[in-house]
Write a sequence for this structure.
């Protein structure tokens, strides 16, 4: 009987090739980790009827509120969020004119009755929170307990400017933060058949890691409608691509204003469906 | 026999299509000729229109469950969102003076006692269409707008639209160096007309549309 050495050899070669294909996107040729979805936090949403929409002052409900929309009017509801230092979530509940607070497991903790519809929330240093009023564009300052600080001047942090250079590359002008010096960051995107569309800086942490969202074409056959993919990448201060998230869903029921947030190396995505708010979580640490 | 049937079928199809094509051509011939720069100027004018909320503009006499998006005395920038509405700045100011409610959402129904504009009304006005009758919605904009054959991600031009039939439509106003895009829209969630920068992912499932009577 022949020894199956040929089969073993083939198996090893195949395994090695599969390992390379799985790890490396995208230009650098080195080991780039692909981060799988770590967990999903689910928060119930109540779809309102016409009658209920008249009684939206109930500020203590644990459920968030959504309006399903109508012909020529897309659904409305939670479209802004951010993450506090303790991992709890602030989620806009515009139809109830409040910010709802949930712990890191998605349990309702209370609500800030802000008396306006908010569509974006940004946690900034010093324990402050900037809330964007949807109907005026005005920014309101709160502390992390929901107390307003009307005299506190605050501005949204400026994201590092980015530029798409061609269908495969772009550059980000990193800002100096903490111990990191900043400077240009080259972004390469080399997946055959896909084209780089946009670059957006999500965050730069104190160690100089930069988190970037990339939008690309979806590949495959042309369709009647816009189709695309979204990636989030983490680059080290040295400019090395460390890891990548490739499974970001984009089938939004309510289009988010705050689509992605990064906090302590964890990437969060707000995905509101007709029955729940899902916060998709990828831990890049 | 088979050839005869085939000819009959072709004749029937031609007869059926002939009036349709004629009607289509007629519709397009009647469309106003509009320059792209004017489309964007109209969009910005609607987004920049400033008005003050009066006490009377907070109440809609024809709707029992109406709740205003505004506060008395508030200074607002942007024509308010009103589902089913197609008011430009002049019509809006007149109706505001008459005491109509400023803006409304679909949850209150199409109301005769409110003033403002909805998403398809907004794109219609930008394209130079008459505000009378609100003839076009996201479901029939295709009758007056074609699908651009260019690369949608690089070759759209200002004044094109991104539309999701039955849901929403926005006016495209340009690309940014980082690959994101600029749009203007009558937004229900913002309660008014706004112009802003956004990402492509927000428009997954939308179809680009190009008005058929552009003065290029």
């Amino acid at each position: 009987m022949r020894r199956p050495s040929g089969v073993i050899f083939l198996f090893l070669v195949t395994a090695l090739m599969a390992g390379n294909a799985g790890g490396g996107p995208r230009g650098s040729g080195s080991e780039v980790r692909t981060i799988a979805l770590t967990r999903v936090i689910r928060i119930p949403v109540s779809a309102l009827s016409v009658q209920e929409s008249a009684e939206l002052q109930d500020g203590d409900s644990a459920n968030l509120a959504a309006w399903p929309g109508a012909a020529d009017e897309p659904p409305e509801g939670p479209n802004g969020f951010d993450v506090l230092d303790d991992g709890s979530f602030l989620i806009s509940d515009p139809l109830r004119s409040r910010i709802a607070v949930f712990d890191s497991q998605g349990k309702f903790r209370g609500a800030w009755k802000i008396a306006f519809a908010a569509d974006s929330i940004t946690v900034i240093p010093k324990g402050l929170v900037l809330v964007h009023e949807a109907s005026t564009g005005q920014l309101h300052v709160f502390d992390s307990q929901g107390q307003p600080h009307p005299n506190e001047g605050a501005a949204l942090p400026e994201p590092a400017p980015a530029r798409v250079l061609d269908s495969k590359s772009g550059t980000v002008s990193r800002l100096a933060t903490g111990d990191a010096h900043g400077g240009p960051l080259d972004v390469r995107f080399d997946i055959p058949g896909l084209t780089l569309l946009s670059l957006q800086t999500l965050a730069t942490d104190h160690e100089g890691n930069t988190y970037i969202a990339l939008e690309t074409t979806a590949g495959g056959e042309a369709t009647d409608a816009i189709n695309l993919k979204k990636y989030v990448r983490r680059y080290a201060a040295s400019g090395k691509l460390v890891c990548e998230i490739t499974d970001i869903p984009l089938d939004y029921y309510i289009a988010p204003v705050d689509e992605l947030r990064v906090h302590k190396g964890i990437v969060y995505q707000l995905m509101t469906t007709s029955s729940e708010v899902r916060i998709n979580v990828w831990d890049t640490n | 026999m088979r050839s005869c049937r085939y000819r009959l079928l072709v004749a029937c199809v031609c007869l059926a299509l002939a009036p349709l094509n004629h009607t289509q051509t007629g519709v397009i011939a009647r469309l106003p000729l509009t320059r792209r720069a004017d489309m964007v100027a109209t969009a910005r004018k609607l987004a920049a229109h400033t008005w003050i909320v009066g006490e009377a503009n907070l109440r809609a006499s024809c709707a029992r469950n109406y709740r205003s998006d505004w506060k008395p005395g508030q200074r607002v920038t942007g024509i308010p969102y009103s589902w089913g509405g197609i008011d430009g700045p002049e019509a809006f100011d007149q109706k505001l003076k008459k005491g109509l409610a400023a803006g409304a959402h679909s949850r209150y129904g199409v109301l005769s006692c409110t003033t403002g504009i909805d998403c398809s009304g907004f794109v219609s006005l930008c394209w130079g269409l008459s505000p009378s009758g609100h003839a076009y919605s996201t479901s029939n904009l295709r009758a007056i707008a074609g699908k651009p054959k260019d690369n949608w991600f690089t070759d759209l031009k200002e004044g094109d639209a991104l539309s999701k039939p039955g849901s929403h439509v926005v006016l495209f106003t340009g690309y940014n160096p980082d690959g994101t895009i600029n749009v203007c829209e009558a937004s229900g969630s913002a309660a008014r007309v706004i112009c802003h920068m956004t990402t492509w992912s927000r428009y997954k499932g939308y179809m680009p549309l190009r008005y058929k009577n552009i003065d290029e």
Summary: Chain A touches chain B through 48 residues (CB under 8 Å). Confidence is low (pLDDT under 50) at residues 7-25 of chain A. The radius of gyration of chain A is 22 Å. Residues 5-23 of chain A form the longest helix (19 residues).
